[in-house]
């Protein structure tokens, strides 16, 4: 019998197998937390879109309610009378005097009372402001016309175009401008507050030619004013 070869002894570290493990994919779990984060992001944007949609629907319903059912209209304005006493124009182009203005406020609405929260009045000669006042707040019922009388004083206010105002006075009249900022509230729930700019320009005041005048009055009687709402729409005066 032939001798069997003697097996060679194994020494050193065993060789690692390079054969791929079919279960290797199971060792890497799916990115669960990332998927969950993406879901929360989608839900957040869905909530924002839903909130915007609901707000738009509410705004649309509100506009229908105000426009069709309340038929909310802007107030109208005018000036009934202007009187200036102790009018003085100095050689340094400074003007002073005591003003008395009778304003007319009209509420044309048939279903909504108006509350005039604040009315700021500014009188100017051309671009120079010479007198200011604030009217007291008041309530006005529907289809009502209210007369508000205000007295205020201009104390030696400087006028840049002094030659022009002196020339006007020498011809017997001076043209002033009057503007108001009116904050109005509709006394109906959710109807809101809005601000109107009221222009009562070109108030021609009959004056004496002397340095210190007597009682100077508005030429032509009452005058209607033009109002503008926040989006620039013009509102007819009284």
TrEMBL record:
<feature type="compositionally biased region" description="Low complexity">
    <location>
        <begin position="11"/>
        <end position="29"/>
    </location>
</feature>
<feature type="region of interest" description="Disordered">
    <location>
        <begin position="1"/>
        <end position="33"/>
    </location>
</feature>
<feature type="transmembrane region" description="Helical">
    <location>
        <begin position="43"/>
        <end position="70"/>
    </location>
</feature>
<dbReference type="InterPro" id="IPR004864">
    <property type="entry name" value="LEA_2"/>
</dbReference>
<dbReference type="GO" id="GO:0098542">
    <property type="term" value="P:defense response to other organism"/>
</dbReference>
<keyword id="KW-0472">Membrane</keyword>
<dbReference type="InterPro" id="IPR044839">
    <property type="entry name" value="NDR1-like"/>
</dbReference>
<dbReference type="GO" id="GO:0005886">
    <property type="term" value="C:plasma membrane"/>
</dbReference>
<keyword id="KW-0812">Transmembrane</keyword>
<feature type="domain" description="Late embryogenesis abundant protein LEA-2 subgroup">
    <location>
        <begin position="106"/>
        <end position="201"/>
    </location>
</feature>
<protein>
    <recommendedName>
        <fullName>Late embryogenesis abundant protein LEA-2 subgroup domain-containing protein</fullName>
    </recommendedName>
</protein>
<keyword id="KW-1133">Transmembrane helix</keyword>
<dbReference type="Pfam" id="PF03168">
    <property type="entry name" value="LEA_2"/>
</dbReference>
């Amino acid at each position: 019998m032939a001798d069997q070869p003697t097996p060679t002894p194994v020494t050193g570290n065993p060789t690692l197998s390079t054969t791929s493990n079919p279960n290797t994919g199971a060792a890497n779990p799916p990115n669960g937390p990332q998927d969950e984060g993406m879901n929360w992001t989608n839900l957040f944007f869905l909530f924002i879109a839903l909130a915007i949609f609901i707000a738009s629907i509410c705004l649309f319903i509100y506009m229908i309610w105000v426009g069709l059912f309340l038929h909310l209209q802007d107030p109208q304005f005018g000036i009934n009378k202007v009187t200036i006493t102790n009018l003085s124009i100095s050689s340094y182009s400074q003007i002073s005097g005591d003003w008395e203005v009778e304003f007319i406020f009209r509420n044309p609405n048939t279903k909504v009372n108006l509350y005039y929260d604040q009315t700021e009045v500014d009188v100017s000669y051309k671009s120079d402001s010479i007198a200011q006042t604030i009217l007291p707040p008041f309530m006005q019922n529907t289809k009502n016309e209210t007369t508000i009388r205000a007295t205020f004083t201009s104390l030696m206010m400087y006028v840049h175009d002094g030659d022009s105002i002196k020339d006007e006075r020498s011809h017997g009249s001076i043209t002033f401008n009057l503007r108001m900022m009116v904050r109005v509230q509709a006394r109906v729930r959710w109807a809101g507050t809005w601000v109107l700019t009221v222009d009562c320009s070109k108030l021609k005041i009959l004056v004496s030619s002397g340095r210190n005048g007597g009682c100077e009055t508005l030429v032509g009687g009452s005058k209607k004013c033009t109002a503008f709402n926040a989006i620039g729409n013009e509102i007819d005066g009284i």
